[in-house]
Amino acid sequence: MASISVLFLTIILTFISANAAELQTYIVHLDSSKGQHFIQKQDRQNWYHSFLPRTTSGANEEPPAMVFAYRNVLNGFAAKLSAEHVKAMENMEGFLYARPQRVYMKHTTHTPNFLGLHQNLGFWAGSNYGKGVIIGVLDTGTTPSHPSFNDKGVPPPPAKWKGKCEIAGCNNKLFGIRDFTTGENGTQFDQDGHGTHTSSTAAGNFVNDASVLGNAKGTAVGMAPLAHVAMYKVCTLLDCPESAIIAGLDAAVEDGVDVLSISLGLDPNPFYLDGIAVGAFTAIQKGIFVACSAGNSGPSNSTLANDAPWILTVGASTLDRKIVASVSLGNKDVLDGESIFQPKDFPQTYLPLVYPGSNGDKNMSLCMEGSLDRVDVKGKVVVCDRGINGRIEKGQVVKDAGGAAMILLNQVEEGDSTLADVHVLPASHVGYKEGVAIKTYISSTASPTATLLFPGTVVGVDSAPAVTSFSSRGPSLQSPGILKPDIIGPGVSVLAAWPVSLENNTQTSSTFNIMSGTSMSCPHLAGIAALLKASHPDWSPASIKSAIMTSADQVSLNGKPIEDERELGANIFAVGSGHVNPSKANNPGLVFDIEPDDYIPYLCGLGYTSQQVGIIVKKTVSCSKTIPEGQLNYPSYAMTLASGENKTYSRTVTNVGEADSTYTISVPDVVVPDGIVVVVHNSTLKFTQVNQRLTYDLTFRRSNSVEINLPYGEGAMAWRSGKYLVRTPFAIKFV
Fold first, then answer.
1. What is the pTM of this model?
2. Which end of the chain is more exposed for a tag (fewer CB within 10 A), N or C?
3. pLDDT, tens digit (0-9, with 9 covering 90-100), for 207-239
4. How wide is the angle at C-alpha 79 spanned by C-alphas 194 and 167, nearest 5°?
């Protein structure tokens, strides 16, 4: 018995030893001020390599290996290391810390017109369609042969461009392609489709006669059709390693991009532990605008990613186009849903209608794989609840079981948020109310029937824009005193370039797909930022961001306040400052500018150490000065207020409108929740020249005589001067 125990202990110790020696990718942060200062690239790499242990503790132990040596966005490198290797580094001069890398996830024929961008007219033409601006995209790669990346009308690369194209097929439009995943999937081309879609949404050139399975016909074009595109492939088919993302950011900064579009994200970490946040800060130090997706984890609160204040955090909204697929029930009710697959030969005769989950089986209600094997659905219209497995996957389960069609029903939390998908069989995705009506009908008769109708593309849905259910919400967890998301933009059923044909999954010269996600809304805003950069080359990233936020729309096409597709008014943590209006952003009147060093006392105020702040700003800092989050010169406010408490913040605005102008704020321009008083201490701002700066103070006061039973309140204030209206929203947490 004793010998068995010894054997068991030996096995355990062997397992622990092997596990400790297992290599994984670490991000290693160094303090260059404690080590050497480097001018030549090779010198830097030699110093980085000096941190890799030269000896191993066991003959069979895999040696450490450098993965990426960073030059711009991070002082340090990524390497394959064991925990023992990291421990050996800890006493070396210049070592700060090392952490295992995180793995990030990937989070249009009509959207330009929907956003008020019209060919040869107004802001679009005035900005020269983004000509001369370089948009860097971090994603899954792209498809150089796609006509969206033709370079008609696009000038040669600017003299400042230092990047390169690693494959054949680049031109003046798509002049940079770099792969930071080589060795993981072996190709620089986009095997996923995500990157082709996002890069063409930001800056695809004009392509006539675009459609998806004959729907949404029109001219496909990105937001900045004459801008340049540089693609940094940082994602494989499976995931997006943080080390590759940092390497992509590092290269983009050195290459000379003007705008970065990053539709990737993960649960938020403190900013100094977030590779995107750290890299984005270096970008804004270099004058590069950064837009990131908020994430697709809505509708719950505090689910958004990419919430650093130097990043434009973008939520998703609907557009006024739907690809309609209607459900006609046996009781003659017709309920509208959506689907891209619109078969012309689907029978209009009523078929048996069945809801497999009516017996209470959760797997059957969701149409999970294998759940319909013992259910007779052959030739029937099958009802499936949304959730857990993919929407298209549910249709495949129904098809494999012999079903004739599928009706996909939203759950209560998804409300009216329906999506047009390329389903594998006739299908309709309907909202929650419609789903309740369908289930009620099924339970009301012994022989329920239904059929599907396919009216196709409908334009002019006046409830748009609305916040879609999946769009991640604030408040920010890492910095609750900064209101996030910043803005919403089109992210539902967006048509853009795709690497293969949806009909037969082969490569053809002109293929498109419709996708939904904040991954789609982010490149819209990146493209709009490129237009603003072309129109105002002297504007800082913070000024561009301010212009987008303070000019945002607050109402839908029907003139009513923007709604949440969960059948609620859209609250401030869903909509942020509002819905982007590119033409208004081009002439905002005033902007709230922020210099990169202005973030240092803000970061110190978050409780970060000088070393942690130094990792972000890449220099030695002292946290002798701090400011509260609300004192950052941000174009919105977020705060907590206890009963009877006052908080005063200052803001500095820069005049980018008419030289001689006077801005005023009056009682009707300040909207506050019950129990809150807002006092503007200097309610008139008189400017005499462009780029003049003026400062005002604002006090938020909570009454101690008004009972407030809500967790949050929201409001806004607006400065007015002739045609200009500069709006700043605020959110208040009641404590």
1. 0.91
2. N
3. 998 888 888 888 899 999 999 999 999 998 888
4. 40
